[in-house]
Model the fold of this input.
Amino acid sequence: IYHGQLAWFVAAMYPDLEEQLILGFTDDQMKWCTNNEKQMWTHLVEEKLLFSSDPMNIRKLVEDAPYTRFYTSESPGQAAVWQGLQIVRAFAERNPGLSVHQVMAQRDYQELLRLSRYNPLAGLNNIYCKKIAGKSVSPNVKSHNEVTFLFFYLI
Done:
């Protein structure tokens, strides 16, 4: 989300600059991100990468590379930055009273995500909510807090 925040700042300062130029993506790379947004999100959540503080995980998600290591080899490098930009953009749009400075000053990324209500799985909510309510969640989700986190973000 931090790197998405930086990309959002560039977009806020240069509103006429296309997103793909901000991210340094080709048309095909932008299409890949758009077409695979749900799969990227699912992977980030299920593998507990969204708020990972492991420097190796972070590097694999945001470093310039031929592809993003946690996704397929067809993915662009820094695909997670694109997703972070979508989260920050949703946050800014849902909170139009915030200045650019206030958006950039937000450092509680869990709160930023919660307030953004970003959810590329919106059409799949009923499936996930039933699984969560029935405690039939991903085997990677081990605690009540994670179930609450997933439930909150998927509704």
About this structure: Residues 4 and 86 are 7 Å apart (CA to CA). Residues 79-94 form the longest helix (16 residues). DSSP finds ten helices and no strands in the chain. The mean pLDDT is 83.
